[in-house]
Design brief:
The protein is about 25% helix and about 30% strand. By secondary structure, the protein is of the alpha+beta class. InterPro entries: Nuclease_put_TT1808, Restrct_endonuc-II-like, Uma2.
Length: about 190
Amino acid sequence: MIANFHEFISANDYLKWEAQQEIRYEYLDGQVYGMTGGTVPHNDITLNLATALKTFLRGTDCKVQMADVKVIFAEQGAYFYPDIVVTCDAQDRQARDGIRSPRLIVEVLSPGTAGFDYGQKFRRYRRLLSLQEYVLIDSETIGVDCYRHREDGQWQLTSYPDHGNRVELVSIGYSCPLAVIYENVDFIPPPNP
């Protein structure tokens, strides 16, 4: 993600302007950020999980969206495009402009966005009353971090560090081996020292 504007822009002006753009832009507290392109592993991971979730949720009240659907925090001054979002809200299923009540949000990390996804995005996402899980998937190596919203209001981290693990998405009653998420993903080997 790269910053595109250094001057404050209102949320209304952002929405009008972004609707006319060919690429996606996220918005946070008056600043607009252009979305950078992802790598092949990033795309493969997103497609693998979105496909598995769509199959699993077929026939339910939940809907899976990926990449080009924004999550709207109008009252909080933020609009984000997560890699995958699941909503089970009736109004969201018929929405045209974005999702307001996500149950599950997944971000596939890249080196340039990992800090933002763990930091500022998660701080905003946690404010959504509907959100039950926030999942961050590494695209450079195998690893998944899942934050679950507990009944006491705290967020609990569960890490899935290797292929032998099954990822549990409690918010929608889904689990799968990490191998499903990383199917046919080829990582670039680290350079030799």
